[in-house]
Specification:
It is a single chain. By secondary structure, this protein is mostly helical. The protein folds into two domains: 38-214 and 382-392, Cytochrome c-like domain (Cytochrome Bc1 Complex, Chain D, domain 2, Orthogonal Bundle), CATH 1.10.760; 219-363, Cytochrome c-like domain (Cytochrome Bc1 Complex, Chain D, domain 2, Orthogonal Bundle), CATH 1.10.760. Helices cover 33% and strands 3% of the residues. It has 13 helices and four strands. The protein has a two-stranded antiparallel sheet with strand order 1-2. A two-stranded antiparallel ribbon has the order 3-4. A hairpin with a 5-residue loop joins β1 (38-40) and β2. α2 runs antiparallel to α6. The model is unreliable at 1-26 and 385-400 (pLDDT under 50).
């Protein structure tokens, strides 16, 4: 009787496991189509297509030219690699205790940022700097506020294994993913011929997904491509102030990405109580870059408050006004900084500052926001249910 009961129980367990694996394979089948704005080539990889590729001028970026070309970008990933990266991005299995995912600090509805002055890591405490947006990172070749990483793959290891961020370690991360039947199958689909999940594949899949986050169809873009009715008179006036030789905003925040991807020392004050952040001085061991940080993109800027590397300014107006208060006005008395030569004292009126803010609102484009997985292979919670339901019908791209 005991033998029979044991046999029945083992049979049930086997069938349950087999059924679970079958369902998992169905639920987590990776997408075979490229995300919107990408075409599937004969080689089976996704190639980005934008209207900006028809322009070959790079001369007018620094003076706010509209029909200027984009810098080189990264694509060439397979649909499966991009989709695998999407699941990994939203799966808390990547963190030490399953409490955080990449999306915890880079939330799609917050411009792939998190609404915080400084992000909160696995310890429950705020980390050193704010979470930058991930829109259009395919065009970027320096990562982190202090520009210490030269690729998304290099960047990925930072938060994954930082004890104050996701807190994981390579051995545990690989053990968790390699012991997950669903991820085993998904990685084999995305990286054929590889039997065991390795770190390089994790980094590559995360990079593939993030490089698919394209935001180039805002009302500004429609205006730049010739549809001038896309902007109001006030917004056009704001664009003209923005790219004027008085305000000089466009010399660092150059169209069409609205960043030059360089490091600049602008003398941003730290929030009260925080020690001075030396920024890129540490990265490059260069005194002239003390207090320097990467120039952020202004794409979807209205979605990513508070602003600056440590979230000093709560409103976009306050951030714009900072530049108007005079060169180096906020430098601490005990610091000597080499302020970037583009930073001047433009002495704009309040109305002109408001016009710039109005123009910056035209840079919002979330039309290609990717689908948030309803569930992930770990079985851990993905996102807030209310957010998920709000955006479920607007998902542009889903492999579920």
């Amino acid at each position: 009787m005991r033998v029979l009961l044991f046999t029945v129980l083992m049979t049930w367990a086997f069938l349950a496991q087999a059924n679970s694996q079958t369902n998992a394979q169905s639920t987590f089948a990776l997408n075979q189509q490229c995300p919107p704005s990408f075409e599937l080539t004969e080689q089976g990889v996704c190639r980005l297509l934008t209207r900006y590729q028809f322009y070959d001028s790079i001369q007018n970026r620094g003076v706010g030219g509209t029909q200027t070309s984009l810098p080189p970008h990264r694509d060439g990933y397979t649909p499966a690699q991009i989709d695998l990266g999407r699941f990994l991005f939203f799966d808390p299995i990547l963190s030490k205790d399953g409490s955080l995912s990449c999306a915890s600090c880079h939330q799609p509805d917050k411009g792939f940022s998190d609404d915080l002055d400084r992000s909160i890591g696995i310890t429950g405490e705020k980390v050193k700097r704010s979470a930058p947006t991930l829109w259009n990172v395919a065009f970027i070749d320096k990562f982190f506020w202090d520009a210490r990483a030269n690729s998304l793959e290099e960047q990925a290891a930072g938060p994954l294994f930082d004890p104050l961020e996701m807190g994981n370690n390579p051995a545990k991360l690989l053990a968790d993913l390699n012991s997950n039947t669903d991820y085993q199958a998904m990685f084999k689909q995305a990286f054929p011929g590889q039997q065991t999940i390795v770190l390089e594949q994790i980094y590559s899949a995360l990079a593939a997904f993030q490089n698919s986050l394209i935001s180039l169809n805002s009302r500004y873009d429609q205006y730049a491509h010739g549809y001038h009715q896309a902007l109001t008179e006030k917004e056009i006036a704001g664009l003209n102030v923005y790219r004027s030789f008085v305000a000089r905003c466009s010399e660092c925040h150059q169209p069409p990405l609205f960043t030059n991807n360089q490091v600049a020392v602008i003398g941003t004050p730290e929030p009260e109580g925080l020690a001075f952040d030396i920024g890129a001085e540490q990265t490059f061991n260069a005194k002239k870059l003390r207090g320097g940080f990467k120039v952020p993109t202004l794409r979807n800027i209205v979605k990513t408050a508070p602003y600056m590397h440590s979230g000093k300014f709560d409103s976009l107006f306050d951030a714009v006004e900072f530049y108007n208060k005079g060169r180096g006005h906020a430098i601490p008395k005990d610091q000597q900084l080499q302020i970037h030569w583009h930073i001047t004292s433009p002495d704009l009126t309040k109305h002109e500052l408001e016009l710039i803010v109005a123009f910056l609102g035209t840079l919002t484009d979330e039309s290609l926001t990717p689908a948030i997985p309803q569930q992930v292979p770990s079985g851990l919670p993905v996102v807030d249910e209310k957010y998920q339901q709000t955006h479920l019908n607007n998902n542009q791209y889903s492999g579920e």
